[in-house]
Amino acid sequence: MKIAVIGAGNMGGALIKGWAKAGLTADLIITAQTQETLNRYTQVYPGIASTLDNVVAAAEADIVVLAVKPWLIQQVIAQIEHILKDKLLVSVAAGTRHERIDVYAMPNIAAEFGESMTFVEESEKAETVSQLFGKVGQCRIVPQRLMAAGMMMAGCGIAYVMRFLRAMMEGGVEMGFYPDDAKQISMQTMLGALAYLHETKLHPEAAIDKVTTPGGTTIKGLNELDHAAFSSAVIRCLKAGLK
Ligand SMILES: NC(=O)c1ccc[n+]([C@@H]2O[C@H](COP(=O)([O-])OP(=O)(O)OC[C@H]3O[C@@H](n4cnc5c(N)ncnc54)[C@H](OP(=O)(O)O)[C@@H]3O)[C@@H](O)[C@H]2O)c1
Question: Reduced to 3 DSSP states, what percent helix, strand and coil does the chain have, rounded to the nearest 5?
């Protein structure tokens, strides 16, 4: 099955690299606005076909994935609509709808490393698209009402996790670690927390109990987070994009 990725930027590029690593190199045809962008992929993966012409790419594909900025979706569909007849048109653009789009998907940039958390909106063809995005991470088919929430938690969520990591690093630097060391320590601690939850299947609060001694240091730090309304800030952060 041939896949055209229209727009090889941050998100399109992560999908392209993720699918290439999953063995789909020969199935990909990619487009961008400039040749420089296309070269960045074809130099690493010579098997990937590329063109600056969206019509040529879409004509060769069975599935066309739109990964341009939301305000370009209308224009790109108008350009390729005449050759879309039996093709599956998928959009990963945030907050954009168009009657010709068959399936809406919301991946994140960890697709490049096979670790995306992707949401696919329920529809007739959702399963086919879910299988494709399942090659670059985990994928959930959800009703339309949950797509925006999924985008905030997983698409934008990557940025929120990075911001937490940065804050932890800054604390580490203030306490005496060099930035690179603080980064490595923060990342390994996060990995450890995730591994613990994965393996034990515990609720995060139950896991917290296991590292919290009454009157000890952990609870002092946790209570400081509560005084600073940490949970409330995270919840408001996730809901901010729904307004
Ligand atoms: N970034 C994320 O984490 C993320 C997550 C989920 C969904 N999305 C969605 O993904 C879409 C793209 O976002 P992005 O962050 O990847 O943007 P981006 O980095 O700016 O990439 C956009 C790409 O589109 C190309 N392009 C521009 N005009 C084009 C045209 N007419 N035909 C073909 N290609 C064209 C650009 O080519 P050049 O490089 O040559 O200029 C660029 O490679 C957005 O709709 C966004 O909502 C993004």
Answer: 60, 15, 25
Distance (Å, whole) CA 29 – CA 13: 12
Helix (H, G, I), strand (E, B) or coil at 104: strand
Q: Is the CB of 110 under 6 A from ligand 1?
A: no
Residue range 62-111, pLDDT digits in tens: 999 999 999 999 999 999 999 999 999 999 999 899 999 999 999 999 99
Going from the C-alpha of 232 to that of each of 153, 157, 237, the distances in angstroms are: 15, 15, 8
- What is the pTM assigned to this prediction? 0.95
Instruction: Give me ligand 1 centre to Cα 38, in Å.
Output: 13
Nearest-CA residue for atom 25 of ligand 1: 7
Cα 56 to the chain's mean position, in Å?
Answer: 27
Cβ–Cβ < 8 Å for 144, 121: yes
Cα of 73 vs centre of ligand 1, distance in Å, is 10
| From 17, 68, 73, 160, mutation site for ligand 1 pocket: most ligand atoms within 8 A of C-beta | 68
Distance in angstroms (rounded) separating the CA atoms of residues 240 and 223: 25
Residue with the two structure tokens 């609060």: 205
Structural domains of the chain, ranges and CATH numbers in brackets: 3-142 (3.40.50.720), 157-240 (1.10.3730.10)
Ligand 1 center to 9 CA (angstroms): 4
